[in-house]
Amino acid sequence: MTLTYREACKQAIRDALLADPRCFVMGEDVGKYGGCYAVTKGLLEEFGPQRIVDTPLAENGFTGLGIGAALAGLRPIVEIMTCNFSLLALDQIMNNAATLPHMTGGQFAVPLVIRMATGGGRQLAAQHSHSLEGWYAHIPGLKVLAPGTVEDARWMLAAALADPNPVLIFEHIVLYNTEGELDPAVTAVDIRHAKVRRPGGDLSLVTYGNSLPKCLAAAETLAAEGVDAEVIDLRVLRPLDMATVIASVARTRRVVIVDEGWKSGSISAEIAARLAEDALYELDAPVRRVCSREVPVPYAAHLEEAVLPRVDEIVATARSLLAPR
Amino acid sequence: MKIHLNRAHLHALYRQMLRIRRFEAKCVELYQAQKIRGFLHLYDGEEAVAVGVMGALGPRDAVVATYREHGHALAHGVAMNAILAEMFGKLEGCCRGRGGSMHIFDRGRRFFGGNAIVGGGLPLAAGIALADQRLRPGAITACFFGEGAVGEGAFHETMNLATLWRLPLLFVCENNLYAMGVPLQDSESETDIWRKAQAYRMAAEQVDGMDPVQVEAAAQRAVEHVRAGKGPYFLECRTYRFRAHSMFDTQAYRTRDEIEGWKQRDPIGRLRAWMAGNHQLTVDEAAAIEATVAAEIEAAVAFAEAGTLEAIDDLERFVLMDEVVQEVAP
């Protein structure tokens, strides 16, 4: 069955609402408007205003309210329009959601899901286009998911809701319109493991989110040149599944990390550091990274394109690792 | 709404305030002895607020408090032993010694902290109230905060949401006139804090926070309103902190005369004098209450001293939870 990523997200939410009366969706314009990116369109009509709750523009307030509701027995799905806006809720996410279980000696769990749109590529400029999932992956107490496929968009939410911890799901704005095939035999995914999306023996492309289709495209180009690239989809940025990454690198001995976040202090930096710590002797070449240029994402199409990771850049970086020295 | 000012009730108010006052004095001693470390914020002078409000709450009701919360925790029934052991950093503390003075939590008592981000507890309280509205009809949440929190966006966002969704939420502003060292008139354009609630169409009143009987009467009016599903209620309690903000404060921002002036209105001293003058408290009874309180505190100190330290091997436990802990039954 073919499905868009957006429709997959919506079906996942619909399932959750049908499965658990404690579950509700809360956020800006999730109801009457149908969601900033139209993910919740039609759900207000189906489930009513108790389950699809429009909020005022108050990210810190309604995110904190979601945390309190989770502490006291509900299962909120909080939607934040874009991850740039989530900075207004950072106090609640970091100081309460991520902290309370540990700080209270395990007295309280925070079974909360926060969905937010992330990434660039739609010419939305510097306050709607950033990739902040790597920042959140810094914080103990959170789980951070980045669905890069329709299958993950369809099934990750259920796993997130079944988890007793605060789970942040970063949905890439460019992926919403993309279509993918859904295997009817798959009705659940885990949120613990990275996944090999394309096996290959010559080098590893380690990535997530909207950089996944770019890496798959780069792998096809490389294949035409006789280079067999393996593509690893991280899927979960915290906790990181380094075992899968290291197993791949141990086979291919070369790695390019592709991350739409900025390079400095990013999730790509973390992966590179862990490879240096735990897998240095598996490598036959230096770790390479393709990340966003370190500027606020600009509006003009040619500038935005120059900032975000590109397929040709990934291909060129891969080639540089394989070139005879 | 009438409070039955019988002898037993007056004694209960007095005993509860005295427990807090004597507990805080012991904390100072223990701090100086380096048994308690970190930041320590004491409640002396403000006891009538916590005791008066808790007097109007029941066991199904939730409480969210601030980092100056020993009094709230004691008045809401959190065990003194567990509070003091927490401040000693012991495993037997209510949070295994991980939270300390500013983070007292007790799931069983529905005591949700202990929040050290000014204003950070308000959205949480609204969420607990929303869950109660759906899962535990009739239960309400009392949220305590200082007037300093009123400057935070979280305050205004929560006030708006509370009225919009008619949340069963009692806002209790402990207006002690100083946000750390900033006087009220230097931090707020409207110094009658209760008037801010009017902008959110919320029932509100100002009450003398130095008088437990008046606080309790106002809290009972408020609780009745909230429990009846009429939406949130806002109490501004005018009060005063007798001691420094924390253990690191030279109090350069206020005068000794001002502090002494407020001490004339000490809620504990005044209640004791009133009861004694109206044949509600004999000298023997007062001594007996003191003795009971002292015994409880000595037992708590012994409990905390005897406590053990959490194994460092358990440091990462509860960073992520394995399961949702059993919630308090509806």
Give a brief rundown of this model.
The complex is a heterodimer of chains A (325) and B (330). Chain A has helices at 5-19, 43-47, 59-71, 90-97, 100-103, 133-136, 150-162, 211-224, 242-252, 267-278, 301-307, 311-322; strands spanning 2-4, 23-27, 52-54, 75-82, 113-118, 143-145, 167-172, 179-181, 195-198, 203-207, 229-233, 236-238, 255-262, 288-292. In chain A, the strands form three sheets. In chain A, strands 3-2-4-5-7-6-12 form a seven-stranded mixed beta sheet, sandwiched between helices. A five-stranded mixed beta sheet of chain A has the order 9-11-10-13-14, with helices on both faces.
Topology:
The complex is a heterodimer of chains A (325) and B (330).
Chain A: E1 2-4, H1 5-19, E2 23-27, H2 43-47, E3 52-54, H3 59-71, E4 75-82, H4 90-97, H5 100-103, E5 113-118, H6 133-136, E6 143-145, H7 150-162, E7 167-172, E8 179-181, E9 195-198, E10 203-207, H8 211-224, E11 229-233, E12 236-238, H9 242-252, E13 255-262, H10 267-278, E14 288-292, H11 301-307, H12 311-322
Helix pairs in contact in A: 1-7, 3-4, 8-12
Chain B: H1 7-32, H2 47-54, E1 62-65, H3 70-75, H4 80-87, E2 111-114, H5 121-135, E3 141-146, H6 153-164, E4 169-175, E5 178-179, E6 182-183, H7 184-187, H8 194-199, E7 203-208, H9 212-227, E8 233-238, H10 256-263, H11 267-277, H12 283-306
Parallel strand pairs in B: 1-2, 1-3, 3-4, 4-8, 7-8
Antiparallel strand pairs in B: 5-6
